[in-house]
Design brief:
By secondary structure, the protein is α/β, with parallel strands linked by helices. The chain contains 15 helices and 8 strands. Helix 1 packs antiparallel against helix 12 and helix 6 runs parallel beside helix 7. The chain binds flavin mononucleotide.
Length: 324
């Protein structure tokens, strides 16, 4: 059975960032945000020896596993893996424009073939897990509503319930993945229009939302929002999400947050690099004045793999700086 879950506020999938460790921190900071893994190629998901590390969930639900792929039987297997690891959703990425991803025949280039995408979604679907899609508005320099509408018309035949739209085109040659997140213009109106055509599909708006007040105001018109770079640059923004979006009590940044996080990462040391384990939490220094001494001490402790000393220092930091 699928659970009823709020996708009002989603943290976007981000390769190299939305690791299991980052998701642990996000969940400590916000109980209500809907989380995503990084995109994982179906082949790696099925064959990788380090699968355990890549997709560990540790009950950080609600959470989606995002996959990249277009081979039907691999997608079906991936969906089963997502169920085994207690994910709430499996999401197909048809928005990533990178060259490597195009070579593997997945990501945004799949938007050229809406029937294949429809088949891919059907391969992910079963009665235990929600199969969803993350797409762009279209391909190339010109925005074209008809293209977007015809694409969604085809996908809607699967009975899909949730579609995340990065509300700009992908340009598949001549610009980098970074450029593809800023150069093609945003168009939220396309999402508004398609949402009116398909009231039974929840469309989640993504792209260019750079503060929580904007997110809150967009929620008056859209069913859900998805934010990426704001959270990547400062995960501690999530502390405000339960208060501003879900009207719950404010959370304090205190010793418990640090303790909970270290409890999760300590057993991973030896299997995972110290940097990957700690980097989500080290954003705690974001725009806190006079934290230079702390940062340089932590750098030294990281080189010496002294995780307990780092934990003690961060506890001292939060109590001294009185972060609210
Ligand atoms: C570093 C980085 C990695 C990303 N990796 C993925 C990914 O794995 N899968 C995906 O669908 N989108 C990926 N994206 C795109 C984001 O999910 C999101 O669509 C995009 O950043 C726009 O949202 P924003 O303006 O809130 O950042 C990535 C973005 C960034 C910045």
């Amino acid at each position: 059975m699928k659970k009823e879950i709020s996708r009002k506020f989603c943290v976007a999938p981000m390769m190299g960032y939305t690791t299991p460790y980052a998701r642990k921190l996000y969940r400590i900071l916000s109980s209500n945000s809907f989380l995503f893994s990084e995109m994982i190629a179906t082949k790696s998901l099925i064959h990788s020896k380090s699968r355990e590390n890549i997709i560990d969930n540790d009950f950080n639900n609600p959470v989606a596993l995002q996959v990249g792929g277009s081979v039907i039987n691999e997608l079906t297997k991936s969906s089963k893996i997502a169920i085994d690891y207690n994910y709430d959703e499996i999401n197909l990425n048809v928005g990533c424009p990178s060259k490597a991803v195009q070579k593997g025949s997945f990501g945004a280039c799949l938007m050229r073939d809406k029937i294949l995408v429809r088949n891919c979604i059907e391969a992910l679907q079963n009665d235990k897990i929600e199969a969803t899609l993350k797409c762009r508005l279209g391909l190339g320099k010109e925005l074209n509503y008809e293209f977007f509408e015809e694409f969604i018309d085809e996908i809607s035949k699967t009975g899909i319930k949730f579609i995340y739209v990065h509300a700009r085109n992908a340009i598949l040659s001549g610009i980098s993945p970074q450029g593809n997140r800023t150069i093609p213009p945003l168009n939220y109106d396309f999402v508004k229009k398609i949402k009116n055509k398909y009231p039974n599909i929840t469309f989640i708006l993504n792209g260019g939302i750079d503060n929580l007040d904007q997110a809150k105001s967009l929620l008056k018109e859209f069913d859900g929002v998805m934010l990426g770079r704001l959270i990547k640059n400062n995960p501690f923004v999530l502390k405000e999400v339960d208060k501003i979006i879900f009207k719950e009590k404010d959370k304090l940044i205190d010793e418990t947050i640090i303790n909970n996080y270290f409890e999760y990462i300590k057993p991973k040391l030896g299997f995972e690099s110290m940097f990957r384990l700690l980097s989500p939490l080290l954003n705690i220094f974001f725009s806190v004045p006079h934290s230079k001494t702390y940062k340089s001490k932590i750098n030294n402790y990281m080189k010496e793999q002294k995780i307990n000393l780092i934990e003690d220092l961060l506890i001292k930091f939060v109590s001294e700086k009185n972060l609210s």
